[in-house]
Design goal:
Layout lengths: L3 H11 L5 H20 L3 H18 L2 H12 L19 H12 L4 H10 L7 H14 L2 H4 L2 E4 L5 E5 L2 H34 L5 H8 L6 H15 L3 H22 L5 E2 L8 E2 L2 H7 L6 H11 L7 H6 L8 H15 L2 E3 L7 E3 L1
Antiparallel strand pairs: 1-2, 3-4, 5-6
Length: 352
C-alpha cells in the first residue's frame, strides 16, 4: 500500500487475529515503513515522519530504534529544515514610547523606579483577553487552527504538535503571551538605562536592603544585587546565571509558605529529589493571581514560551541579550512586592 497511514490502519486491524510473534513482526514492519517514508521526505515532512516512527517504536518497546531515531532527529541540520522566516512590522508613535518609558523613570529615587517596574504587568497580558484574541483569530483565520501545528524551540528541536483545534488554540495563547513579554522587554531595558543614568545602581547596600523581604532572604538579595551590577557591565550571561537560581529559590520559599511540597521522597531504589520549577509553578495554580503565574511560567519554564530557566541552565541559550535579562530583573522586582497573605484558616497565598 502506497499510503503509510493506510498501511498502519490495516495492520492495526489485523492485530486481533494474530499471535504475539506475528504481531511483533508487523509492528517492526510498521516502524520501518515510517522510517522509509521519512528517508524519502524532506523538511518538516521528514521530521513529522521521524517523530511518528519514534512514537510507534516507543509504544512498541523498540528501545534501540527509539535511541537511533532520537539521534537522527536532533542531528537534522538547519539547512534541511526547509523553514522560512516571516516577519511583520508595526509602527508605534515615538511619543507613545516616550510616555511609557517616562512613567517609570520620572521618579524621585531608585526604589520608586524599581517598584514601578515590578508593579507593571503582567507583560504576557490577561488570560481572559488572550483567549478572546485567539478565539477571534480562529474565526477570521480558521485554517491555521485546523492543520497540525508543529512547534520548534529556538534550537529547532520539535517540542509539541497541535493535533486538534483546541490544542492549536492553547499553543496560540502561549505564543501570544510570549509576544507580549518580548515586546515589553524591548522597552524595558531602556527604562533601566534611564534609571541608571539618573540614580546609578552602585549603592549595593541600598539594593540589598530593597530586595530583602519575607520571601527573599538577604543572601539571595546579595546575589540579585551583584547580578544587576553584572547586567550594567554588559555581562548578560553571568547576570542571568545568577538571577535564575535565585528566582527558583524564591519560588521554592513561596511554595513552602503556601503548603506546596518542594521535594519528592525516595521510593524503593529511586532517590529523593527536589521538585522542578515547572512543577512548582504548576502547583501554584489557585494559590496566586493566574495572569501573573502564567507570566512567570512562560518566562521561566514553559517549553512553548521563553523558557529562560531551562534554555539558559541547560546550555541551550548562552548568549542572552539585554532584553532577555531585563525580563528576569522584572520578575525579581515583582516578587520583591509580594507577600504571603494568611487568612484565618492559616492557609496562605502570595499577594501583592
Amino acid at each position: 500500500i502506497a499510503d503509510p497511514w493506510l498501511t498502519q490502519t490495516n495492520i492495526e486491524l489485523m492485530y486481533k487475529k494474530m499471535g504475539d510473534e506475528k504481531k511483533l513482526e508487523l509492528q517492526k514492519y510498521l516502524v520501518d515503513r515510517w522510517i522509509s517514508e521519512a528517508n524519502n521526505s524532506s523538511g518538516i515532512k521528514k521530521i513529522f515522519h521521524i517523530e511518528h516512527a519514534l512514537e510507534l517504536a516507543r509504544n512498541y518497546g523498540f528501545n534501540d530504534i527509539v535511541e537511533k531515531l532520537r539521534m537522527e532527529l536532533q542531528n537534522i541540520p538547519d539547512s534541511e529544515m526547509d523553514l522560512h522566516e516571516l516577519s511583520v512590522t508595526t509602527e508605534i508613535p515615538k511619543e507613545n514610547i516616550e510616555k511609557f518609558i517616562s512613567h517609570f523613570s520620572e521618579v524621585d529615587d531608585l526604589k520608586q523606579g524599581l517598584i514601578k517596574i515590578g508593579s507593571y504587568g503582567p507583560p504576557s497580558g490577561f488570560l481572559k483577553e488572550n483567549i478572546e484574541f485567539v478565539e477571534n483569530l480562529s474565526k477570521s483565520s480558521p485554517l491555521q487552527f485546523i492543520v497540525t501545528r508543529q512547534v520548534f524551540d529556538s534550537n529547532n528541536i520539535p517540542i509539541r504538535a497541535g493535533l486538534s483545534i483546541e490544542e492549536n488554540k492553547q499553543i496560540a495563547v502561549i505564543q501570544h503571551e510570549t509576544m507580549g513579554i518580548q515586546l515589553f522587554s524591548l522597552f524595558g531595558f531602556e527604562i533601566l538605562d534611564r534609571l541608571n543614568k539618573k540614580f546609578g545602581f552602585n549603592d549595593k547596600e541600598l539594593l540589598i536592603s530593597f530586595f530583602t523581604t519575607s520571601l527573599i532572604p538577604q543572601d539571595l538579595a546579595v546575589i540579585i544585587s551583584d547580578a544587576i551590577v553584572k547586567y550594567f557591565h554588559e555581562d548578560y550571561y553571568t547576570s542571568a546565571l545568577m538571577i535564575i537560581p535565585s528566582l527558583e529559590a524564591i519560588f521554592r520559599n513561596m511554595a513552602r509558605e503556601v503548603g506546596i511540597p518542594i521535594i519528592r521522597e525516595p521510593i524503593d531504589k529511586r532517590p529523593g529529589r527536589v521538585r522542578g520549577l515547572g512543577e512548582i509553578l504548576h502547583d501554584l495554580i489557585g494559590k496566586m493571581n493566574e495572569d501573573w503565574r502564567r507570566y512567570f511560567d512562560n518566562a521561566l519554564s514553559e517549553p512553548l514560551g521563553l523558557n529562560y530557566r531551562n534554555r539558559i541552565c541547560h546550555g541551550l541559550f548562552i548568549h542572552p541579550e539585554k532584553s532577555d535579562v531585563f525580563v528576569l530583573i522584572h520578575i525579581v522586582c515583582n516578587l520583591r512586592l509580594m507577600e504571603i497573605k494568611r487568612p484565618n484558616n492559616h492557609s496562605g497565598e502570595p499577594n501583592k
